[in-house]
Amino acid sequence: MTLTCPNCGNARSFLIKTLQMHVVQIQGDRVDVAEEGRPGIIECLCDECDTTLAFDEVDDALRKEILLALGAR
Ligand SMILES: [Zn+2]
């Protein structure tokens, strides 16, 4: 398992941005969330120096672990 910042060498702490979609239905004065997608990862940054990391290139096993931990897809 490896995810290492190429700039500062940090391999422990990362900032991951996710995007989640919701379908909201409004009926009169009632608001329902009809559907919630699982969050998708849109960006992965080094938490130490803010370098953008290529999350697509992270090795499969680690990527799955991270996705699982985030409840993402
Ligand atoms: Zn870094």
Polypeptide structure, described:
The protein has one domain (14-70). It contains 1 helix and 5 strands. It is 15% helix and 38% strand. The protein is an alpha+beta fold and 73 residues long. The protein has a 3-stranded antiparallel β-sheet with strand order 1-4-5, with no helix packed on it. Zinc ion is lined by residues 5, 7-8, 10, 46, 48-49, 51.
- The Cα radius of gyration reads 16 Å
N-to-C order of helices and strands: EEEEEH
What number of structural domains do the residues give?
1
Strand order of the largest sheet: 1-4-5
Separation of the first and last Cα atoms: 19 Å
Give the count of helical stretches: 1
Give the helix level as a range of percent: 10-25%
Summarize the structure.
The protein has 73 residues and is α+β, with helices and mostly antiparallel strands.
SSE blueprint and pairings:
Elements: E1 14-19, E2 22-27, E3 30-36, E4 40-46, E5 52-53, H1 60-70
Antiparallel strand pairs: 1-4, 2-3, 4-5
The structure holds zinc ion.
Zinc ion binds next to loops.
Record keyword descriptors for this entry.
single chain; 73 residues; alpha+beta; 3-stranded antiparallel sheet; two-stranded antiparallel ribbon; 1 helix; binds zinc ion
